[in-house]
Amino acid sequence: MKLCIVTHRVSLGDGQGRVNYAVVRHAIGAGHQVTLLASEVAPDLLHHPLVSWINLPVDGLPTELLRNLVFSWRSGRWLQKHAAEFDLIKLNGAITNFPADVNAVHFVHSDWLRFAKRSLRESPASNTPGLRGLYQRCYTLLNAHWERQAFGRSQVLVAVSHAMRQSLIDLGVPAAKIRVIANGVDLTEFSPGHAERSHWDLPETVPLALFAGDIKTPRKNLETVLHAMTQVPALHLAVAGDPAGSPYPALAASLGLGDRVHFLGYRRDLATLMNAVDLFVFPSRYETSGLVLLEAMAAGLPVVTAATVGGAEIVTPECGVVLPDPNDQPALAQILQTLVADPQRRSQMGQAARRRAETQTWDVTAQQYLTLFETLAPSPARHEADRHHPHLLPH
């Protein structure tokens, strides 16, 4: 089978890229040929005889919106010329303007708009003002429009969680068109262990939680965590996320948390960092599939998350806590205080979290994708006439 996968990155350090990396490794292990339209590909794939890389560089462009537009245009032009060479084309969301056999949906911007309207009304301090806020809204609105087009012209949509499946149905996608394939976790990379906190200049003798994600927008909900920490005086928090342009260092300082909240910047050593903390807190306001949540569980950490995180259904009371409302600061504070005061319970929950994560590996995820591909792909490579599609906009 000849596969074409279109994605910005195929790499271990990126959520969507990590899924595609697992799929590619599994596909070439089964003897399939894979062509990647991407801006970044993991080094171990570059020289494999069954992998071809069509490099679409966009990193020098100034905004994510512009980078996405240029990538879409370049990939669409390439596919118009070469689509007939493949048995199956897999896309990711609205990444390109070309029709797909399989479209893996990791995020739905129109769904986020609904969540954001409610969440930001309930928590107005998290609203992003000025030009940045305007840019974010325009970016989301445009992507919501492009996603509707992409979903409509895809044969099969893969939802990365059951929550995502319901979001697609609410958007009008027929249920029969949707398959659910949950993301997996690398049980070797993310495993229980111990790491010296001094490597990150973190205090050694205090209860330490970890928050990881984008801290430039209110979606991941660091704001609620910071407010809850004012009620948990013994707890320290390590924040893995790029602080440039983020409002949260200033918020932490204004709440009197400057000496207890440690902003570590964007981290590529998250697996090791997880071995240095006591628990993971992630009450994201909207998350289609909390990959980092599963990674924390694999690392043996008790987790505190929210029902608005796709994949939270894997968190049982034995291994973590799921908040019904991500903005409920008093409830979050109470949970954190309880865990801070009970190291034995944290240890038991961490062991249960690891056992739960062991049921959801990348091999399981990749095999489900490959089974779907083999079901959909025709026996011979398709002819260009089979790839007839209507005139589309530049995105």
Give the helix/strand layout.
Blueprint: E1 2-6, E2 9-10, H1 15-29, E3 33-38, E4 40-41, H2 43-46, E5 51-55, H3 64-82, E6 88-92, E7 100-105, H4 109-122, H5 130-152, E8 154-159, H6 162-170, E9 178-180, E10 208-212, H7 222-229, E11 236-240, H8 248-254, E12 261-265, H9 270-274, E13 279-282, H10 291-298, E14 303-306, E15 320-323, H11 329-340, H12 343-357, H13 362-376
Parallel strand pairs: 1-3, 1-6, 2-4, 3-5, 6-7, 7-8, 8-9, 10-11, 10-13, 11-12, 13-14, 14-15
CATH topology of the largest domain: Rossmann fold
Spatial shape: globular
Q: In percent, how much strand structure appears in the residues?
A: 15-25%
Q: Unreliable stretches, pLDDT < 50, 5 or more residues? A: 381-395
Provide the domain count.
2
How many β-strands, per DSSP?
Answer: 15
**What distance lies between the first and last C-alpha atoms, to the nearest angstrom?**
28 Å
What is the structural class?
alpha/beta
Q: How would you sum up the major sheet?
A: 7 strands, parallel
User: For the record, what CATH class of the largest domain applies?
Assistant: Alpha Beta
Strand order of the largest sheet: 5-3-1-6-7-8-9
